Amino acid sequence: MKCNFTPLDGLLLLTPSVYTDARGHFFESFNAKTFRQVAGIQPEFVQTNESLSRQGVLRGLHWQKAPKAQGKLVRVVLGAVFDVAVDLRENSETFGQWYGCELSDENHAQLWIPPGFAHGFLTLSETAITSYQVTEHHSPDHEICMAWNDPVLNIDWPLRRAGVTQPVLSPKDAQGIAFTELDE
């Protein structure tokens, strides 16, 4: 497994070794020993989530505040998404900064999102199945949804590449709060 450090401390882009032959391919999407050795992390996952999204669907930006903050290991099983993480750790040097990358069934890349980050993605392909393991159970009392189009964050979502001018949002995601409202 190859570990690429992103500009945001603790946020890692991981690419597994993929073994391909006439039958197809094989790779380990998670191995605790490898993660500890290569990435220096040892997450304890409590749940695996999976979503199916149509092209142009944007999910997020979702975040759970402490003490129920979630670490996430995100990968795409089918299709492609533009995946985004926003650093919301108050004492971080990169607080309020975002990082985005393409995750797909072709590149097999995974994004390790540590606790304290908001997360969202835009579906680029006709459909996409996204799977993510989390280190904490869902807690509606600790969940916050941030505005995907917050002008302070200024995330450069590839809407044109997703074939839309406005993304398809859930009612909750359409009501996300502004970055400046986080203190409240």
From TrEMBL:
Q: What InterPro entries does the database record attribute to this sequence? A: RmlC-like, RmlC-like_jellyroll, RmlC_Cupin_sf
| Class in the EC hierarchy, top level | isomerase
Its annotated pathway reads:
Carbohydrate biosynthesis; dTDP-L-rhamnose biosynthesis
Q: Which Gene3D superfamilies match?
A: Jelly Rolls (2.60.120.10)
- Where in the sequence is the signal peptide annotated? none
Which branch of life, at top level?
A: Bacteria
Q: What is its EC number?
A: 5.1.3.13
The keyword Isomerase is assigned to this record: yes
**Record-annotated membrane-spanning stretches:** none
What Gene Ontology molecular function terms does this protein carry?
dTDP-4-dehydrorhamnose 3,5-epimerase activity
Instruction: Please give the catalytic activity noted in the UniProt record.
Output: dTDP-4-dehydro-6-deoxy-alpha-D-glucose = dTDP-4-dehydro-beta-L-rhamnose
Enumerate the CDD domains for this protein.
cupin_RmlC
UniProt key word Ribonucleoprotein: no
For this UniProt record, give its keywords in alphabetical order, as a comma-separated list: Isomerase
Functional note:
Catalyzes the epimerization of the C3' and C5'positions of dTDP-6-deoxy-D-xylo-4-hexulose, forming dTDP-6-deoxy-L-lyxo-4-hexulose.
Kindly state the subunit structure of this protein: Homodimer.
Per the similarity annotation, which family is this? Belongs to the dTDP-4-dehydrorhamnose 3,5-epimerase family.
Q: What is this protein called?
A: dTDP-4-dehydrorhamnose 3,5-epimerase
Q: Which organism is it from?
A: Limnobacter parvus
